[in-house]
Design the sequence.
């Protein structure tokens, strides 16, 4: 019998010939991602770290991104503790404030590669399936133990196959695709499953695959997977990763799946996820005209250069609506610099937008862009839970960069196909 991607990866790392869904395997991941939460993770095993140290200094990747620059004394103290930890144990993979969102950094810096097994103390670690890796979130206690032992256990997930057929119409984007799928199978439709995409995928750049993989956890997925193809290889070459640094793992043709889905991309339209669930997805025609006070383009879901190019194509030479605050959040310093070089940042500022430092900022409601009671935000981020952006009496709607950009001009949710030629 053939094996799925997840079964092949976990058999390899678990030193087994084959594995089956539900089987427990002990694995040694290539990297453990942590962000600002590294401080409480370290504190769980403070005495053990002092006695035994970090098992492998190259295992942890720490990125300060959630509340940057520090918004209060507690945050600043945690950042200080993390910097001291990095210095003490001579950790090579540390990215201080302003360098980017942890998930973008992992892929952009070549720390997440095809065929690797990666875990992280953040639920959106599933993003790295965009480049053919097995990546999943773990809790803080597991992360603490990993620092000491380099090992953890995983249960082999069942796999879902999602076949995408045809081409997307103009004005419809990868964000619309993943929101539509989540709306279809619901927030629990892929619980503890590895989701494998197949079909007409070459139309999706690595940036777009990242957007889709990033939101896998919003339908309960343990892992998301895009096969490695010419698109992947071209991207890896662009960040100076040679083929010798990774191995490509592909599912077998006759692999067995828990469930299979097929979608005709030609039938897709712009959509919006309405409060207070990512699977509460509506066609844009059902919510068009709803007034918004804040628009956010960025985060680890849609903060890449290609997203900014799309947004700028709508905003160039125009002004945002006077009742709207438009926030732009690059996913990394490199993206910020590239956007500056292309004149995209100038376009945003001239349109009336506010550019924030590369990081998580308003996405989690901890810092920058907090909403007031009764306000609505249209965002390219990945969650619209009640209170997510700092106020339980505000509303968050999720959409593509194109939908958010055009909506910022009108002050209300608007169909991007109006301006697509």
Sequence:
């Amino acid at each position: 019998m053939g094996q799925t991607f997840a079964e092949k990866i976990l058999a390899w790392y678990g030193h087994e010939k084959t594995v089956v869904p539900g089987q427990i395997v002990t694995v040694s991941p290539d990297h453990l991602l942590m962000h600002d939460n590294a401080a409480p993770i370290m504190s769980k095993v403070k005495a053990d770290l002092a006695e035994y140290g970090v098992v492998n200094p190259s295992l942890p990747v720490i990125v300060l991104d959630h509340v940057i620059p520090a918004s209060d004394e507690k945050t600043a103290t945690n950042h200080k503790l993390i910097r001291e930890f990095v210095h003490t144990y001579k950790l090579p993979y540390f990215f201080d404030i302003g360098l980017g969102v942890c998930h973008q950094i992992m892929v952009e810096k070549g720390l997440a590669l095809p065929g690797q097994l990666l875990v992280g103390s953040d639920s959106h670690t599933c993003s790295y399936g965009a480049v053919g890796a097995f990546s999943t979130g773990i809790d803080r206690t597991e992360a603490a133990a990993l620092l000491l032992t380099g090992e953890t256990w995983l249960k082999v997930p069942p796999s879902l196959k999602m076949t995408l057929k045809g081409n997307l119409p103009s004005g419809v984007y990868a964000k619309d695709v993943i929101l539509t799928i989540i709306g279809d199978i619901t927030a629990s439709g892929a619980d503890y499953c590895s989701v494998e995409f197949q079909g007409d995928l070459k139309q999706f750049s690595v940036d777009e695959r990242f957007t889709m993989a990033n939101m896998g956890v919003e339908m309960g997925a343990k892992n998301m997977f895009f096969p490695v193809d010419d698109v992947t290889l071209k991207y890896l070459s662009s960040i100076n990763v040679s083929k010798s640094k990774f191995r490509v793992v592909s599912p077998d043709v006759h692999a067995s799946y828990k469930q299979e889905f097929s979608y005709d991309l030609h039938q897709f339209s712009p959509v919006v996820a309405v409060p207070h669930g990512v699977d509460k997805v509506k066609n844009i025609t059902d919510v068009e005209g709803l007034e918004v006070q804040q628009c956010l383009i960025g985060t680890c879901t849609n903060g890449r250069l290609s997203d900014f190019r799309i947004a700028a194509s709508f905003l160039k030479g125009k002004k945002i609506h006077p009742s709207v605050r438009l926030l732009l959040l690059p996913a990394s310093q490199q993206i910020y610099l590239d956007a500056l070089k292309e004149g995209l940042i100038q376009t945003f500022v001239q349109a009336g937008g506010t550019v924030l430092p590369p990081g998580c900022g308003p996405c989690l409601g901890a810092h920058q862009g907090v909403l007031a009671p009764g306000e609505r935000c249209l965002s390219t981020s990945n969650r619209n839970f009640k209170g997510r952006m700092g106020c339980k009496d505000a509303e968050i709607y999720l959409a593509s960069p194109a939908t958010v950009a055009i909506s910022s001009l009108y002050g209300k949710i608007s169909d991007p196909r109006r301006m697509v030629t």
Observations:
- The two ends are 48 Å apart (CA to CA).
- The domain at 5-263 is CATH 3.30.499.10 (Aconitase; domain 3).
- The chain has two domains: 5-263, 273-419.
- The mean pLDDT is 96.
